Amino acid sequence: MNFHQTTLLCALLAIAGQSADWPHWGGGSGRNMINTVEKNLPDDWDVKSGKSVKWKVKLGSLTYGSAVVADGRVYIGTNNEAHLDPNVKGDKGNIVVVAEKDGSFLWQAVHDKLSAGRVNDWPHQGICSTPQVVGDRLWYLSNRCEATCADVNGFADQNDGMTAETYTATGHADVIWSYDMIEELGVFPHNLATSSPLVDDGIVFLITGNGVDEGHLNIPVNSAPSVVAFDAKTGELLWEFAVEERILHGQWSSPSMGIVDGQKQIYLPGGDGWLYALSPKDGKLIWKFNCNPPDAVWELGGYGTKNNLIATPVFADNVVYIGVGQDPEHGVGIGHLYAINAKGSGDITKTGALWHRGNDEFGRTISTASVLDGLVYIADISGILYCLDQKTGKAHWSHDLKSAVWGSTMVADGKVYIGDETGKINIFAHAKTKQHIRTIDMRETVYGTATAANGVLYIATKTQLYAIAAE
Predict the structure, then answer these.
(1) How far is CA 427 from CA 401, 417, 421, 434, 437, in A?
(2) Where residue 160 falls among pLDDT bands split at 50, 70, 90?
(3) Nearest Cα residue to 136 out of 165, 156, 111, 163
(4) pLDDT, average across residues 54-74
(5) Does the model's pTM come out above 0.90?
(6) Rounded to the nearest 5°, which phi and psi values hold at 265?
(7) What average pLDDT does this structure show over 421-438?
(8) What is the phi/psi pair of residue 92, to 5°?
(9) Which of 167, 163, 137 has the alpha carbon at shortest distance from 71?
């Protein structure tokens, strides 16, 4: 089976719900945070006593990404504070790979920090990109703003790609190709490049992270792209697209994909607050939608009413769902959540919204939605979890988690899982009426989103990855 056949097979399995693996952020190309395959997932465990904890693995000191599971391996981004290789010292960005069956260490990708420091590569943030795995390759965006392709086996099956890797000892990554978007495209990642790749039909799509300078006033290279497409096998740059309006802050989201009337669309949450639908073949604009009201004002520090797009857009049933927000350090504020008709062309700001929640109805968010059985689940940064009607956007119920939420809901096995900044995992029944099943204390902050694969729930806290299975 060749590369393109493998990619197509994985996409079809994901759409059909026949694959028990979870090979990339969102599971499918629409990035919808649901898993309709898994059964008998746990809803009661205890990390202190070890009840229902299959295994746990020490990660770095900060972990923002989520686990992906493919072909017996679990992948997650973190920093170097676990010192899995004692010979690699200091602050780095790491992708850690462990065995699905027992959590034993297999290999890691290690990336040095950028010399510019926090303006481009914030200390100790590690790698926030969640990889995608197809066949014997994985793709991710490093903390150095490098689009990276690696061998899933590391160096266990010899060096198959580049021969100039910095870290070549056993237990390290075998990099197939790497593309430096700072050097080659003039990208200026503000604070950190974080996008999780989307691989489809032999093409890798990534949001570059291009943003403002340290003074928050200028874009160093106005023409630098916001989203890029690479040949997944060779790393050749196929096309690039830059937003037309001014970048407000940074571009930390991830691309998603939908199929509308038989044609694929790539969704770019632009750094100007607009959502763009592009042709995956050449990056040409299909439609765009302004996710901020016309009277919204941007102010440094988050004091204004204009917001970024940090959440990943979700495609379901010819509709794109996305909310606006800001860097969580900017605090809570007025937000907006949209359901956008994907069957449009040109500027669809005035006509494209099927429904909208804003002002007192929804706050700033960096969370990605879960859409299933006519319900939409999403949380805002203030910690309010909403269950909304998919057609109207009206609330069936809401719940105050009483803590900030950075991650997203995961709906699987009739349950809704969501983590928060205090380290609690709250579990609800997937239903129109609120049924709170349980609150579980993970004992430290949960920034990411739960992953369900092969009967196991994977949850990363700041420093640990847990594999949890019903007893």
Answers:
(1) 11, 5, 15, 11, 5
(2) confident
(3) 156
(4) 97
(5) yes
(6) -130, 135
(7) 98
(8) -140, 170
(9) 137
Q: Residue 375 corresponds to which tokens in the numbers above?
A: 């319900």
What's at 391, amino acid-wise? K
User: Minimal CA–CA distance to 252: which of 203, 212, 298?
Assistant: 212
Q: What is the DSSP letter of 67?
A: -
Residues near 68 by Cβ (< 8 Å), separated by ≥ 6? 22, 23, 24, 25, 74, 75, 76, 130, 131, 132, 133, 451
CA distances from 110 to 85, 144, 212, 460 (A): 10, 11, 27, 19
Q: Output the six-digit token pair for 76.
A: 């997650």
H or E element: which one contains 13? Answer: helix 3-16
The tokens of 374 are what? 């006519």
Q: What residue has token string 């102010």?
A: 299
CA distance 277 to 430: 30
3-class DSSP state of 231: strand
> Hunting for tokens 């609690």 — which residue is that?
424
**Distance, CA of 301 to CA of 311 (rounded, Å):** 19
| C-alpha distances in Å from residue 311, one per residue of 87, 334, 361, 364 | 37, 15, 18, 10
DSSP letters, 94-153, are EEEEEETTT--EEEEEEEEPPTTGGGTS-TT----PPPEEETTEEEEE-TTSEEEEEETT
Strand partners, 410: 417
Token pair belonging to 376 = 């939409």
- The answer to whether 305 touches 334, Cβ cutoff 8 Å, is yes
**CA–centroid distance for 203 within its chain:** 18
**Tokens describing residue 97:** 């790979």
Which is higher by pLDDT, 12 or 439? 439
* DSSP 8-state assignment for residue 16: H
Mean pLDDT of 133-145: 98
**Cα-based angle 454, 448, 95 (whole degrees, multiple of 5):** 75
CA distance 137 to 139: 7
In Å, what is the CA distance from 282 to each residue of 132, 223, 345, 425?
22, 17, 16, 41
Element (H, E) at 206: strand 203-207
Residues 6+ apart with CB under 8 A from 72: 99, 100, 101
Q: How far apart are CA 267 and CA 253, in angstroms?
A: 10
Return the SS3 of 383.
coil
CATH of domain 3-468: 2.140.10.10
